[in-house]
Amino acid sequence: MNLNIFKQSNKIAVLTGATGGLGKKLVSYLLEEHYKIIMIARNLAQLEQISLHYGDKVIIRICDISHLNEIQYLCEDIKKQFHHINALIHCAGNIYPGSFSNLSDQLILNQLQVNLNGAIFLTKGLLPLMRKKSSIVFINSLGGIFPLKDSALYSASKYGLRGFALALAMELRPRKIYVSSIFPGAIDTQMLHNEMQNGGSLLNFCSPPLEPEIVCKTIMKALKKKGLEYYIPKWSGLQTKLLMLKPYFILRLMPFVEKFCEKRKKNWQKNNLHS
């Protein structure tokens, strides 16, 4: 598909993880706000299926952001066709739950590459196209401010992403380029189902898993309001921040928290079994 169809567009959004549960939902929200969307993902068949539905309002590009050479090629491809982009939204992410000692080196590297390094290098590559009042939005996680037992690498990558976003926001603000981070709890997508089938953290159920639409609305709010950080639900963000003032107490509280979350997990599994 040719990028030239977008040359007359006013607002351009680049979206990674476009075939995931959150990314697919977000496409329709962006189109409602008259963005033209460059959808980025690894799976060509899924990208083509989505593009058939939306027609020339979207363009698809294959890129595995765990590979630096693919990111570089993608950025050069976009630069050749566009003079600007208005929004860069990082939805791509992965998680391989389990004990750190049992993770292979490849799984360790993959989580860091997709969740952190890929977002950093793609931002660097496309930053020259960012206009004044444009936005960079990172989809982080409450796991980026609160440690997740048995998901140490996921937490590490998301903690790093938060630090990068905060520092980048200070650096780019004088140029009127705004950086926002979204911190949802668990989102009820296929990624969560896959995670829980492989021993995912019980902390996913401190609050009921979020519908993707709720997160999409928050992303759209960030694009308009240019806020620094958004927590979903808000009270979870507040609780998490308060707990992190005294990390030592987390070790003592965790057995009680896990017991509470185990009950919610079972209820969630029952509901999904009957749905």
Automatic annotation (TrEMBL):
Transmembrane segments: none annotated. One of its GO terms (molecular function) is oxidoreductase activity. Keywords: Oxidoreductase. Pfam families: adh_short (PF00106). One of its GO terms (cellular component) is membrane. Gene3D superfamilies: NAD(P)-binding Rossmann-like Domain. Belongs to the short-chain dehydrogenases/reductases (SDR) family. This is Short-chain dehydrogenase. It comes from Commensalibacter melissae.
